[in-house]
Structures are given as structure tokens and as C-alpha cells.
Amino acid sequence: METPTGGNIRQTPLKKEHFALGARMVPFAGWEMPVQYGEGIIAEHLHTRSAASLFDICHMGEFRLRGTGLAEAMDKIFPRPVSSQAVGSCRYNFLLTDRATVVDDLIVYRIGIEEFYIVVNAGCIRKDFDRLSELLPENITIQDESDFTAKLDLQGPGSADVLADLGFGKRSLPQYYNFIGIEIAGIPVLLSRTGYTGELGFEIYFHSDHAVRLWTLILKHPSVKPAGLGARDTLRLEMAYPLYGHELDDQTTPLEAGFGRMIIPAPDRNFPGIQILRNSPPAKKLVGIELEGRRTARQGAQVIVDNEPCGTVSSGTFSPSLSHAIALAYVSPEISSSPGEPVELAAGNTRLQGKFSGIPFFKSGSAKKNVA
């Protein structure tokens, strides 16, 4: 889980709704969040894969940037180009240290020619804001809108049907990694065709004053159930999506995390850490591991090949979709990790038997499905 930022634990606008639904609440990134509801993590996971689930993600951070020459300025900050984004598109990106390690992974939305919206991880809000303020020109304004922004994630292959039943023609819904501004029951929202589950889904941003009303409205749909952070984690791990504080941190570069094809810098690019990315070989590599049984190896467990430790687990879980345990791990780049090769993971005094796997582990997600 993300590292808490310290201070008093915060609650989302939906705290009372979660308790009314029987949620088990846990601390996460400085917030009190629902980890699961009455049916449990596995049931919530499988419902998301087969129908549609609603997640409270109000803890995330949101920044709005405006100013002349903004896109060009952002191209000097982010490893993935921003100026090539069309208005109405969003792009996964990284904020880096001068050492090319990851301050945070985030999504950049192009609202207009000179206006962008950036969504960041909850535990990284303060340091992201400070880093961006340091790197942006003085004529650019950056506003932290996190305190009054709510975010709900409607995820699952039936999510477009839910929106259709709320009055939106499927042809009007945004395509993958695009967004639109609409109203749901009179509430202005930014509706984004993105998510963290590998399924068809939408992330919905709006003023926090409307959180209870919109949460209640969507949950009235007969196919929608609430889901917590536990299912969100198993869903993302099946897809090998990184979690900040596990697969990504300020000791890891995007190349080491497997994003080399995404951010190969063109000769004319210039952003923090670019020379390191160009000239320094990765010190580790991210791999997938499938285990034979249900027992899970947690973050920090040793990876063992030929009786020699060669890395550590970054995330591990039982996969409800595959019915066995899976893990992501960082290993030495010299280690042979072709799919099917044997590997062991240390779990206390026990060695769990497994094999290296291609990623994602789950390959049947509906995220890119055409809904028109």
C-alpha cells in the first residue's frame, strides 16, 4: 500500500455510506478507506470481472494547471510527451527525480490548449505538488483541487450498460483513454474511460458535495455492487499494474519497471533524468511469478533461483480469476526469467514453488472493448 503522508487520518465524503453497507475500514495513504464489504474480496473481484462494481477513490489527488506555453513546459517535465495529446485525451505518465527514479505515476488530462488536469496518488499529493511547482515556469498556475474533488470508479464489462441505463447513449461515451464533460442527474462530471482493473470502466470526477448522491444513484442499478481496496488490489495485480510504494518508488526507474517501450526518449527530448535513462542500464527488472497453490508471498519475500537469492517480491496475492497465487518481483537483470522457468519464493521458513510468467497474468480483460 502507499505510504501514509502523516498527520490525522482523513475520511472520504462516503464514510457513513460505507459503514451502512457493512464495510471493513482500514488506514490507507493517510485515509480511512473500505477494504471490503460483506461478501468479501473474492466475491467483489469476480463481480467486477463479470458485471460492474463501484469503488470510492475519493482519496486520490487532482491538480489543475493553466498558462501560456503549458504543454511545452510539461514536455520538459514528463518522460511521455504531453504536447502531442489531443484535447479530450488522457495519458499515463511519470514524475521523475533528477536520478530518473519515480516520484509518482499519474494520469495527465488535456482539458484545453492551455489547460491540463493531473491525477496523482493519495500518498504523493504534497511531494508531487512541490516537485511540479519547482519545475514549472512562473507564468504557469497550478491549483491543488484534491480537497473538494470526489472520484468514483465504475468498473466491469457491464459499466457502459449502467451508464446507458442512466440515459447516456453508448456512442456518446468516451473511447479508451479519452474523457468527456457531462452531467449525471444534473451533477457536472468529468467522465474518463480509464481504470485500474483491466476491465471496461469509467473514472468519474466531480465536486465532493455531490458524492453521496452520485454514489447512491449508481448503486441503485441492479447490476452494480460496491467494492473495496482489497478487490482493487487483486484486480490490478492480475493485470500487473504497478502500485506506488510497491512496483514504483524513488529507488526505481520506469525502465526497471518495464515501461521502456512507452518512454523511449526521442533525441530532442529533455526532462529530469533523461541522460540516466539513455545511458545507464537498468539495475533490476520486474517479472511475473505464478505459484502452485493458494499461499501468497508478500512484499519483501526473497526470490530464489537455483538455491540463490536473486531478488524480492514487490506485490503478491491470491488470484481469484486464476485460482492460485501470483506475484510481481524485482530480480537481477542477468537472471533468466522466461515464462515456465522454475522459481521459488520464501514465505517464512517455507519455500513456495512456482514459475516465471508473462504479464499480465489475466489476459481476458474488457478494458479496450468497443462499446458503441
Would you give an account of this structure?
The two termini are 36 Å apart. The chain is of the alpha+beta class and 372 residues long. α2 packs across α7. It is globular. It folds into 2 domains: 275 residues, Gyrase A, domain 2 (2-Layer Sandwich); 74 residues, Aminomethyltransferase beta-barrel domains (Elongation Factor Tu (Ef-tu), domain 3), CATH 2.40.30. The strands form 4 sheets. The protein has a 6-stranded mixed beta sheet, with helices on both faces. It has a 6-stranded antiparallel barrel with strand order 15-18-17-16-19-20. A 5-stranded antiparallel beta sheet has the order 6-7-8-5-9. The N terminus is likely disordered.
What topology emerges from the helices and strands here?
Elements: E1 10-11, H1 15-20, E2 24-28, E3 31-36, H2 41-50, E4 52-56, E5 61-66, H3 70-75, E6 90-96, E7 102-112, E8 115-120, H4 125-135, E9 141-144, E10 149-155, H5 159-165, E11 179-184, E12 187-192, E13 201-207, H6 211-219, E14 224-226, H7 229-238, H8 260-263, H9 274-279, E15 285-291, E16 302-305, E17 308-319, E18 324-331, E19 342-347, E20 350-357
Parallel strand pairs: 1-3, 4-14
Antiparallel strand pairs: 2-3, 4-10, 5-8, 5-9, 6-7, 7-8, 10-13, 11-12, 12-13, 15-18, 15-20, 16-17, 16-19, 17-18, 19-20
